[in-house]
Amino acid sequence: xxxxxxxxxxxxxxxxxxxxxxxxxxxxxxxxxxxxxxxxxxxxxxxxxxxxxxxxxxxxxxxxxxxxxxxxxxxxxxxxxxxxxxxxxxxxxxxxxxxxxxxxxxxxxxxxxxxxxxxxxxxxxxxxxxxxxxxxxxxxxxxxxxxxxxxxxxxxxxxxxxxxxxxxxxxxxxxxxxxxxxxxxxxxxxxxxxxxxxxxxxxxxxxxxxxxxxxxxxxxxxxxxxxxxxxxxxxxxxxxxxxxxxxxxxxxxxxxxxxxxxxxxxxxxxxxxxxxxxxxxxxxxxxxxxxxxxxxxxxxxxxxxxxxxxxxxxxxxxxxxxxxxxxxxxxxxxxxxxxxxxxxxxxxxxxxxxxxxxxxxxxxxxxxxxxxxxxxxxxxxxxxxxxxxxx
Length: 391
Known about the structure:
About 70% of the residues lie in helices and about 0% in strands. The chain is mainly alpha-helical. It has one domain (about 1-390). A two-stranded antiparallel ribbon has the order 1-2.
């Protein structure tokens, strides 16, 4: 009986990891794929490798938090763990069907919290710490990105701006036994350097995703003692790989083309800030919602860029009004020297709709909030009223 339950648990955990691969590959490599720097197949391959590395090196700290700290270990039995994983996977699958990369960390914590609420064993101190960081992390992302946007982004744009291409940056010659990769015709050194930066940051994002999200797939099984930490990480890595090569194509399309026209220079800043925050918090065992942190980073970067239309002194004195818009990120062309702070014209700053597609953005926000709620309510109602779990 135990072997059968364990097999079911592994299959459900694999289903969760499959959906995590679909959700997080788009976040990590959407900008690179949307700019034709990287193919969807290449994105899936890199996601597989760096997700596993993040899960193996940093992920165990988050596994312990989800598997032991939110609810007592004796409550998170193998049967309960399977139920928790089922609702995590079901909720994430719903998000992936809409092509939206939902927050896997919020979904996993919500499902486990549903178990704790149903059994009256929820550790409110641990939940309070996690939720506090969920509030603080986006604020930190906003301000760090805001400072970069105001004081450093224009210079970065002048030095390393990366333009989006309509054709692929690299071509593969398969005429010989060993395929050869070379730069496409018309590609200059600036584009090659920029493309390498975008891909490298995508790999960093994948690493941070593994650090935070490997726990979402296997923490219930590891916490119940049914699976060792090492085999849990391996299981999550394999499942994410399958998801990255299959269902991730939809989220890559959404994040790479539909939701935003974010310049790649800005995307590099956003991805670096977000991945660093997520990796640091994962190292201390805090599961973080990467998608929301990245969104606040985009807003902060645009806000900081927009404030360059006035000096700090003028802003304090109220001498000028500052038009704040995330669309400010598109104000300069690639490589164009930036005016000094206070010398830029507010009229040069595009409106927000120039950066985001309103309908797609509304759909993303709606689904991202619906998915964790679905997992929490489903877990609570099941563990509270279905007697098969013995609570």
